[in-house]
Amino acid sequence: MNINRALIVSLFILILLTVATVVNLNNSKSPTYSVSEYRDDEAFMINVQCVPEIVRSYESVKEVYGKKNILFFRYVNNSCNSCLDSQLNELLNFQEEIGKEHIWVFPAYPNDRNSKIQLSNELAKYNYRNIPADSLLVPTYEGEQKSYFAWINGEGEMDMVFVPDRSNVHHTRQYFLEVKKRIQNLGEN
């Protein structure tokens, strides 16, 4: 009986130590931007109110780069190449459907000659402007800088942010359908 009691007490202590270790590890992670996801079967969007860092950085540059009723794609030069290629291909297909005037690409590359040449070759089919990384945020989420799409409404405000997931292109296409609806509503007003 004493052995059973000792075994139960030991097991209980082991469980408590495991829980304490997990809680401690979770609390010691390096801080990243707080991103609250909206998920359902059809979309993966970030609520703009939950990413004030992105909105604030956009507010600081919108007078210079300000566009209205556009979808923009933001990424950094160290993004995953295959992910970026996939996202740009999806964007190009969508651009052919809705028109080039509604889409802008805002990469964050160094402002040097080689980067300018690279961008002019890679983004020749898009409207684009290189915006420094410190001017328009590319957020860090789970240790990675994440590219994102954002819709800028008729008032010039960031309205809808979307972080694409290469493993689920369906979500990107659903997001584009929502953007297409907004563009079609522009023609009706």
Describe the protein's architecture and organization.
- This protein is α+β, with helices and mostly antiparallel strands and 189 residues long.
- It has a single domain, classed as 3-Layer(aba) Sandwich (Glutaredoxin).
- It is 47% helix and 19% strand.
- It has five helices and nine strands, in the order H-E-E-H-E-H-E-H-E-E-E-E-E-H.
- The strands form two sheets. It has a seven-stranded mixed β-sheet with strand order 1-2-9-8-3-4-5, with helices on one face. Strands 6-7 form a two-stranded antiparallel sheet.
- The longest helix is centred in the N-terminal third of the chain and has 26 residues.
- It is elongated and about 80 Å long.
- The N and C termini lie far apart (81 Å).
* Termini Cα gap: 81 Å
> Which term fits the overall shape?
elongated
* Tally of individual domains: 1
Q: Bin the helical content.
A: 40-55%
| Strand neighbour order, sheet with most strands | 1-2-9-8-3-4-5
CATH class: Alpha Beta
As for the CATH topology, it is Glutaredoxin
Count of runs of 4 or more consecutive helical residues: 5
SSE order = HEEHEHEHEEEEEH
The CATH architecture designation is 3-Layer(aba) Sandwich
The chain-level structural class is alpha+beta
Question: Taking Cα atoms only, what radius of gyration do you get, to the nearest Å?
Answer: 22 Å
In percent, how much strand structure appears in the residues?
A: 15-25%
User: What does the largest sheet look like?
Assistant: 7 strands, mixed
Number of strands: 9
Q: Which whole number gives the mean pLDDT?
A: 75
Low-confidence stretches: 22-44
